[in-house]
Amino acid sequence: MSPEPVPPEPSRKTPGPPASAPPAPVIVLIEDEPQIRRFLRATLGSHGYRLYEAGAGEDGLVEAASRQPDVVILDLGLPDLDGLQVIRRLREWSTVPIIVLSARGQEGDKVAALDAGADDYVSKPFAVGELLARLRVALRHAAAGDSGSPTFAVGGLRVDQIKRQVQVEGQDVHLTPIEYRLLTLLVRHAGRVVGQRQLLKEVWGPGQTEQTHYLRVYMGTLRRKLEKDPARPRYLLTEPGVGYRLAAE
Amino acid sequence: MSPEPVPPEPSRKTPGPPASAPPAPVIVLIEDEPQIRRFLRATLGSHGYRLYEAGAGEDGLVEAASRQPDVVILDLGLPDLDGLQVIRRLREWSTVPIIVLSARGQEGDKVAALDAGADDYVSKPFAVGELLARLRVALRHAAAGDSGSPTFAVGGLRVDQIKRQVQVEGQDVHLTPIEYRLLTLLVRHAGRVVGQRQLLKEVWGPGQTEQTHYLRVYMGTLRRKLEKDPARPRYLLTEPGVGYRLAAE
DNA sequence: TCTCTGCGTCAAGACGGCATCAAGATCCTT
DNA sequence: AAGGATCTTGATGCCGTCTTGACGCAGAGA
Asked: Tens digits of per-residue pLDDT, A223-241?
């Protein structure tokens, strides 16, 4: 196992054919302190990563959506948004690994960030070598599974999780909050069966995992809004006794 | 996100199939200091985890192999084996998340452990809350399917346990819940014979281990759905008097 | 050859899960 | 405070799945 990520041929003169070289991992850095940005830009750049930067939470979310990075490095102390908010907003549509940087090293801060959906937490000041090692861990994880895209489309169905917009055959469809959460939950697992328990837990909360009735009602309304023939659904498929599945193609 | 792992479902009405109740996460702890073991035993136990312990590296590897845990917590300072050795040996056949505990907090130690294949590194003395949070992160990863791809294929038969999809000659085949559980149970032991008792116990519950009749009926329906010539099965083989076996290749 | 045992097949009925409708209850906006 | 949208809850019909029993068949042993 090489400790270095992707030694991009230390110094090739020719920008020529990137041929068989694996693509450089893409990282989005959300950090407002210019000093740290400069430092990480230099460090990560020299280790073969491609870096995109944002100085504020909102920008960072946009950047993460457009760049589809392999990893996001996030500073919790941002000027505009609460860092935890950034994590949660990101997790609404993406499973990209998030490494949190923070000047605060209190246990409570770490727990909050990790439970909000971060994958790792590094306190400032940090050791570069450790950060790089944790970055490699995150990349290993990212390589195992897809990081998810904020937009999804099958047939005539389009779901844009950034604009929070759903279309059928190009027509906007209005969904209620619960309908939307149910649909995006399925989108994030498109093609896979999602268990009734899991759906109930994530939409209605951990206390309602027995109310399978809710699912029937809401799958019904969703189908009426999204399917051409709700009785013979093309997108929202039932897996009897198990859960539901969103057709992937 | 609930901070608690998996509230162990207070009380099911039917004593029947172990089916839908989410099982308590299983953890293997490899640690030689009795004091820390006692402490973690109490802490993890009270948070709903099922803990198995080992006091040395070799034992730990055996334990990890037999218990098939969701997470391994590993102390680097073991009497018999070098901690890094344990990580590497484990990684030879398993992708289970590994959280390293260590009294040494040097950067070099962390980098070495993480690059050897560990997923996280916590220095002693550690804060319980943080360890629990990092444990939840590891479990999230495990649940997301980072851990190896349980897809199985022989001949024209394909079983994708992530998508819960079964194909024969590229054609989707619909299986009922019991059929699917029976098949995946065989898949997990592909090539080896699985006893009738075990099949009955794991699919119908511990109370039905005498109803070998069920097996005949369901092996029949499975063969009709999966085999080209159900009377001369290629995949689902009978081991008379013992059990059934899924052809491995 | 006969009998016993274990496996495979078929079919009928019981059972439970799913879809749908509709009526309260609740929340939010105006 | 009124109105509308949304969520919850109950009732009902239907369909697929599971269970259960009966029977045929093959192989082993007497």
From this structure: 999 999 989 999 999 999 9
